[in-house]
Amino acid sequence: MILSIDVLLYIGFTFFIASIPVENILPITYNKIRGVNNKLEKPHSLVFFSFATFIPFISYLLIFLKGYGLLFLCDYLFENEYLIAACILIILFCNNWSIFLKFKNKSSFFIILWGIYMFLDTPLGLSYPILYLLSILLLNSFEVGQLMSTVLIFFGIWKMDLDTFYLPINFFIFLILLYAYRHVLFGYLEHKPKTLLNSYMNRS
Predict the structure, then answer these.
(1) Do residues 79 and 131 both lie within one domain?
(2) Do both 154 and 66 map to the same domain?
């Protein structure tokens, strides 16, 4: 991959967009607009409907589009699998450790990963929420379930006979998640919480 000006600009663009904490910005923006509207007299007030219920869903959609849209645009502009792989890692890292939040670990990956897996392969992406839900139910932990579902994606890539290039991509995804959840994982292994998997294995 040749690091041309266009490629470097797109990497910078991906870094910036992926770092935008939409789940923080949308509620703040909504509350400010609502506050201004409430101060206006009725004849001059803005036509304003309560979108508070929809703010989380809009946030999830925008986060999903970070994962899917940035990769789709990268593929459209450059058609380079190595650049796509690099952008996947940049998107994951910047979405979780945003420069705008002083690199705070949000430990939130499900929606952004769903967008990434949907881009890589639609059936794989559609199966990901199911794998995630089953992993949570079996292990009784959102974070450990997230790690397990990523491990199960390896099996999905093999079973669906997908491009072997997805294997190292998913491996680095797993490493990023492992680093983000390392403290949770240590606590989980230390306390050994009761799970459906343990109940099944210890059945009489």
Answers:
(1) no
(2) no
Confirm whether 56 is domain-assigned. yes
Number of domains in the chain: 2
* Nearest CA-CA partner of 188 in 200, 201, 178, 203: 178
Residue 101 lies in a domain: yes
Tokens representing residue 32 in the block = 């400010």
3-class secondary structure, 177? helix
110 is a domain residue: no
φ, ψ of residue 92 to 5 degrees: the values are -60, -50
Structural Rg of the chain based on CA atoms: 20
pLDDT digits (tens, 9 = 90+) for 99-112: 999 999 998 899 99
pLDDT tens, residue by residue, 75-94 = 999 999 999 999 999 999 99
Dihedral of CA 193/199/200/204: which sign? positive
Whole-model pTM?
Answer: 0.88
Distance CA 133, CA 82 (A): 30
